[in-house]
Amino acid sequence: MAGIVIVGAGQAGASLAAKVRALGYDGRVTLIGEEPAPPYQRPPLSKGYLLREMELERIYLRAPSFWKENEIDLRLAEPVRLIDRARKTVRAGNASIPYDKLALTIGSHPRQIPAAAGGSLGGVYTIRTLADVDAMAVECQPGRKLLIVGGGYLGLEVAAVGVRLGLEITVIEVAPRILQRVAAPPTSNYFRSLHSSHGVNILENTGLDRLTGTGRVSGAVLSNGMKIPADFVVVAIGVTPATNIAEEAGLAIENGIRTDSRGLTSDPGIWSAGECASFPHEGRRVRLESVGNAIDHAELVAKNMLGGSENYRAKPWFWSDQYDVKLQIAGLNTGYDRIVERKGDRERSRSIWYFEGGRLLALDAMNEARAYMVAKRIIEAGQTVSLENVADASRDVKSLLSEATKNPEAIAVDVGDVDAPSGPRE
């Protein structure tokens, strides 16, 4: 029996494999990963694991015994090179593996600096895999100079860890401000101030011309002609969805592997989930790079692979930890035209509320768990709240729930547990 084959053993692939078993599927399940390590969490790589505060076993998604106990054939260090849709097989290593249904949960690849600009020099790293971080760990000695290319959340998380490790850090961002692609100016200002207060040198509106060195990186020439020394470099300039094998197999591609609202690709026997897949969301097509999406999307696809017909309704949420600040993001701010900033009742606590017209789209909450929970519930209920009431500092943030539930069709929420912890789903 061919059964279900899952290509990609990250968060989405592991979640999908576990879910089909939990739903009672008793056929063959094969989970194929290109890394030698069993499925693990990626967010700690730029945080606790890089700091060596988390042991390897703690970042595994499941105990090593789980896969055997649940009769999931976990095949590691076997990159899939080919999908043969006509024969319904995949080529992994030297094996040809048949499938009845195939799921692609192959994630994404970090963007690289071109070799012509020094990207292939020794001492240049991305942070995507265990091997990346293990290789970089020997570089993290106090007093060494780290250049981070890219002022997004990953780059800033690495900067925060680097400060704790005693590194001298410069972050360069080609856009006019850090976080420009993902956040409004007040959020950028907040994190610029936070990092500057910890001694990080942030250079905005500054690109990389080239890395310098012979064999190994020794510095960089920036777009403004400035030359800076660097003992090692972390490249954090975003990711691209891993679509090569899907594209070569003739599947439809649109900012990732194109799927319908159920997770089905253009081939009726092939499904896709996680950050390699794009799907319909509120009248447009999106692709989400988050742990929450990887889990929720994969579990829904598992149901549909077994005969369900449920549409995926994404509930976007994200987080980032930097120094003593926990950033929590609810919703997607794409298309916002107004923002409201609320200060919290503690130092460095505040929230940024994003609106399009009069509709609440998203929220950035820095050390403001209550605001995050309130906004998340309003957004997920399909409701909104007035800009005026959000801007009214005299109103307790929990009172905004009352306004959002005045519509009789709105879902009821329990205000009493708004203060409950809302840590990341890892």
Can you tell me about this structure?
There is one protein chain. This protein has 3 domains: 173 residues, FAD/NAD(P)-binding domain (3-Layer(bba) Sandwich), CATH 3.50.50; 121 residues, 3-Layer(bba) Sandwich (FAD/NAD(P)-binding domain), CATH 3.50.50; 94 residues, Enolase-like, domain 1 (2-Layer Sandwich). 42% of the residues are buried. Helix 1 links the parallel strand 1 and strand 2. The C terminus is likely disordered. The protein contains 11 helices and 26 strands. The protein has 426 residues and is an alpha/beta fold. 23% of the residues lie in helices and 27% in strands. It is globular. It starts with a strand and ends in a 22-residue tail after the last helix. It has a 5-stranded parallel sheet.
Keywords:
5-stranded parallel beta sheet; 11 helices; FAD/NAD(P)-binding domain; alpha/beta; single chain; 23% helix; Enolase-like, domain 1; 426 residues; globular; 3 domains; disordered C terminus
SSE layout:
Layout: E1 4-7, H1 11-22, E2 29-32, H2 56-59, H3 64-69, E3 72-75, E4 80-84, E5 89-92, E6 95-98, E7 101-104, E8 108-110, E9 124-125, H4 130-137, E10 145-149, H5 153-164, E11 168-173, H6 185-197, E12 201-204, E13 208-212, E14 219-222, E15 227-229, E16 232-235, E17 239-241, H7 244-248, E18 257-258, E19 270-272, E20 277-281, E21 284-286, H8 291-305, E22 317-322, E23 325-331, E24 338-343, E25 350-356, E26 359-366, H9 369-380, H10 387-391, H11 400-404
Parallel strand pairs: 1-2, 1-7, 2-3, 7-19, 9-16, 10-11, 10-16, 11-12, 18-20
Antiparallel strand pairs: 4-5, 5-6, 8-17, 13-14, 14-15, 20-21, 22-23, 23-26, 24-25, 25-26
Helix pairs in contact: 1-8
